[in-house]
Structure to design on (305 residues):
């Protein structure tokens, strides 16, 4: 199989990712791309302890991820590509090969406007998402598999409900 | 003692632990403890809807600071509350996190209020682990 989900989630590894998506998609590995986590053994151990032993987690900074993504796309197992912010995903998208992006959780912070219960965006983040979309990447918000995916245009137009 | 009109202020128990988890998990569990034992006041439920990881950590840290509790129960090992609690406990040697809490765990904990709180939490975790029971023969080894 391959990377079956490309998700932006500021909580990184947590219940929705490991259980909510992990079980129905039979996820066997997670590629977590985050420069800060990749530089911290303690952070990596924290996240590693949150996944079941049969699930592998690979921690990469952005530069290493760009080089390694073709290998993960060719992996025989199902995997999730996970970033904690939009900018990191945009840098990966710029390198090509990412067909779609799942907005899974971008939570409240000063300067952000609520778009969904679990998606808050500032102007720069909205612009970054539009930029990603112009590269032919399909973007939708969906926190868990059972939820209705909200296309980016509806999300930004405020018609997501 | 209760006069049937709710507990008097001086009957309010001292909080001994935080319970945190997804959705209404904490409120539901603490509500169940209180319904069964009347001792739900020992537990501080924390819900974290819509919060980012930093805000979850800040919220739990604040609840610990204002209450003085040293024990945190969370629902899921991979959950955001567990991650936050692990960050809070980093370098702290007088506090305890128990992930995967269930109702039997908390029932044991609230009745162990004569024990040091850390000892009570450790014991309750073992009681909660052993309280999971499978009943019925479906899918099991067939009896001769």
């Amino acid at each position: 199989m391959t990377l079956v989900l490309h998700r932006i989630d500021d909580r990184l590894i947590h219940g929705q990712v490991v259980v909510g998506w992990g079980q129905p998609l039979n996820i066997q590995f997670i590629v977590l791309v985050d420069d800060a986590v990749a530089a911290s053994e303690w952070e990596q151990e924290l996240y590693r302890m949150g996944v079941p032993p049969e699930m592998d987690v690979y921690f990469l900074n952005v530069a290493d991820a760009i080089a390694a993504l073709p290998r993960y796309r060719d992996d025989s197992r199902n995997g999730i590509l996970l970033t904690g912010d939009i900018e990191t995903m945009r840098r990966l998208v710029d390198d090509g090969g990412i067909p779609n992006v799942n907005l899974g959780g971008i939570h409240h912070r000063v300067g952000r406007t609520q778009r969904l219960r679990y998606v808050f965006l500032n102007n720069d983040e909205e612009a970054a998402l539009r930029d990603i979309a112009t590269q032919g990447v399909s973007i939708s918000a969906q926190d868990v598999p059972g939820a209705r995916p909200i296309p980016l245009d509806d999300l930004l137009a405020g018609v997501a409900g | 003692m209760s006069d049937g009109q709710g507990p008097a202020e001086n009957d309010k128990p001292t909080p001994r632990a935080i319970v945190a988890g997804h959705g209404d998990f904490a409120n539901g569990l603490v509500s169940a403890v209180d319904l069964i034992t009347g001792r739900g006041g020992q537990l501080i439920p924390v819900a974290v809807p819509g919060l980012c990881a930093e805000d979850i950590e800040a919220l739990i840290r604040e609840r610990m600071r204002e209450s003085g509790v040293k024990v945190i129960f969370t629902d899921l090992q991979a959950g955001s509350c567990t991650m936050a609690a692990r960050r809070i406990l980093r370098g702290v040697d007088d506090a305890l996190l128990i992930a995967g809490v269930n109702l039997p765990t908390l029932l044991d904990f609230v009745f162990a209020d004569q024990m040091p709180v850390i000892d009570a939490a450790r014991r309750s975790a073992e009681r909660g682990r052993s309280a999971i029971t499978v009943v019925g023969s479906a899918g099991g080894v067939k009896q001769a």
The beta strands of chain A are 3-9, 27-33, 56-60, 78-83, 100-105, 113-116, 119-121, 138-141, 150-151. Residues 3-154 of chain A form a domain with the Fructose Permease fold (CATH 3.40.35.10).
